[in-house]
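QA checklist item 7 of 12: single-chain prediction sanity check.
[x] sequence parsed
[x] length recorded as 140
[x] structure emitted
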Amino acid sequence: MSEVVELSIPVKADLVVLARLTAATVASRAQFDVEEIEDLRLAVDELCISLVEGMEGGRLDLRFIRDDDSIEVFCRYRSGGGTEVAAADGPSRPAEAVDEALLGLSGRILDALVDEHGRETDGGESGAWLRKRRSRQPAE
């Protein structure tokens, strides 16, 4: 059974904490252990940073999908302050810059924290995603 949580936040350093808190809450509901929850929190933080580095203003749209034993997080940066997600909102961070971040230090950090990660392009907008699997079965 899947559960989807969506979050849209302004790009401000003091608000990215909401993405980390959401990741921790979703992971806790999926019965991840404390270490897995912390890994996911750090990974979501790194994913957000890799998309907004060098960008000003705008929003981060995040989608957390919880399945029986994994959590997928999709993150997309969009400029502008509107609530609609459309290319007309302005440019996203260039795909090449996202690729560079995910192949550089951010990519190595994500390699250590999650099972899979990568870049996603949808309708001309660049984003990134990650997947974290629960390594241990929860105690009954």
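[x] summary fact logged: The chain has four helices and five strands.
[ ] second reviewer sign-off
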